[in-house]
Write a structure and sequence with these properties.
homodimer; about 120 residues; mainly alpha; Arc Repressor Mutant, subunit A; two-stranded antiparallel ribbon; about 45% helix; DNA-binding
DNA sequence: TTTTAATACTACCAAAAGGTATTAATATAT
DNA sequence: ATATATTAATACCTTTTGGTAGTATTAAAA
């Protein structure tokens, strides 16, 4: 599945950081570990921080660390934040069956996606 | 979830056609029903046909109709065909946990997507 | 056999997403 | 205080995706 690279990167970052919980990670370190383009990675980290998934601290020895409330976070929440409002629930924009009278055959499949495992 | 518009359109088309099984649909008819941009819809229909999901017949009274073998088709197959090789299994490209030593926390979530309901 | 209603193909344009460069701001260590 | 190692912000370039235009091809109907 390809939601898009940004989402993939974000999950990669959070997944990686989850394996070293409570450790502060600099952008440079994450870049070396995860092979995500430096500059883009930085922007993403800033985004994740501003959305409350990470906490950032500037200056020497700074970096990024999980925000407290990440424990109750699941993948859907990450995607929804990054993709704007409710990307997962609005899964297939203007899905035909929701316009036409017949019941929606396909949408059921997407329901699973909304119950992803917690981080 | 937003795989991308092309995939969303494709699922919309197939979903709609599934509600009128065995009926031949012209591109113009589908355009009117589904509100997908005319030209782009045509291209997509051609693609779906060339990938074997639909059969096309040219000429007057032509159009598109389900191919025989669509009965065993699931959403993952459609996406994989449209997105190129194995888009679903390669879900998160170069996922960190597959590089690093620790087990992959996130990837489990995506497994669900591979077992979507049949069309 | 000519007209007409359809798909097929190819090339092109526009918008969005991915990625880079530069500079500013911040905070620690010496 | 100053140098240094970090994040923050903004503007820009590149690539991919979404969408359009024009023409060719096909086949049924008259």
């Amino acid at each position: 599945m390809i939601p898009n690279k940004t989402v993939a990167y974000a999950l990669t970052i959070l997944g990686f950081m989850a394996t070293r919980n409570e450790a502060m990670c600099s952008a440079e370190y994450l870049h070396q570990q995860l092979n995500i383009p430096r500059r883009y990675l930085r922007r993403l980290l800033t985004d994740l921080a501003s959305h409350g998934f990470l906490k950032s601290s500037s200056g020497r020895n700074g970096g990024f660390i999980f925000a407290q409330d990440l424990k109750g976070t699941n993948l859907a929440m990450v995607i929804n934040k990054l993709e704007g409002s409710d990307a997962i629930n609005n899964c297939i924009p203007s899905f035909s069956c929701c316009i036409v009278d017949k019941p929606c055959i396909i949408v059921h499949g997407w329901k699973h996606v909304q119950r992803w495992s917690k981080l």
